[in-house]
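**Reference record**
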Amino acid sequence: MTESKATIDVEKENADFDLAKSLAGATQATGKKPLAQVSEIAKLTFGGGKLTPEEYFNFHLYDDGKFTMEDKKKFLGKKAQDVILRRINPLEWWSIPHDKLVLYGLLAGLTYAVPTTQALFHPFRRFGEVAALRSTEALAAFLRDGMRYPFFGKPVSGIHSVGVSSVTAYEAEVDILVLSNGARVPVESYVAELEQFFKDGYIFQDRLVPHPALRELCGDRIATVRIVVLLTEQGPTITHCLWKVPAGDNIADNFWRQGNLLAALDVETGRILRVVQGFGIEEREIESHPDTGGRMLDFVLPDWERVKGLCLACAAAIPGLKMQAWDIAIGPQGPVMVEVNIGGDFNLPQIATRSGLNDGLFAEFLAKHMNAK
């Protein structure tokens, strides 16, 4: 029997960034000399986008054949993102996206589709009539006799899919949990790993099932749509749509997980315009899913109008967050709201579309709200 030593990722893994390798790779790809790249990095670092050297390469801004300097100035880095989100989204509204119980309670109360929660592991909180597990002993007992399998678990306050788990079955005769990646872990070991999340809470939900067309294309895992929404005076407005797709052994679709895919979508139709895998000079464009061989490019996601409609309705329910990024699963019965982020990671739409965020409606929105007194 093969048992898993690490069931849960407790921190986000960041790919090692090698400046020298990136400079050399960019020179080989475009002919642009390292000194010219370094000079340009300095200008963009101290400019409005506040780009880091790593972001410069992640966005391929060394390629003068694809970008003018004006184009490059439209890209926004993590440092600029942090300033923007804190200025635009009042802190008193941050608790809604940061607390999944609050978010799911709000959306379910409005009769919007959310994942079905089976149990909550927390010292005192409750969530409707679901099982409230107050100790590791109670959690272990529920896993053995009470849980519906398969399930997906995640921290109440988690982000970036850190701390998630996906469990397919329980084998009572050996007291083993079978994970979605095929690994096997004793119940007591799994419970011991979850104890670190007890204080803030951990929730267990029915594992979502992908729409049949999406299962055929990219396998039996949830690939969520990321929709960026701005709350304007005319109401919620969608600016960017992406599709985050798991590949390999990854149990979650976050792009930071090695091997996962990121697709740019046409906002109007849900058609896949571009698919990438990897970061920086290692990034490559692909047309088909590496696991299934299914052609992704030009594929149109099902139930697209319902996806957008549900997203706009949910966005209007949180009017204090002027910039939102929703993750939405598309199942056999339609879209399901998985979570909302406070603006989301700006790098995702910029990598997917290979264009800077600070342009068009997004730029107008930023100019208005960043300059407001």
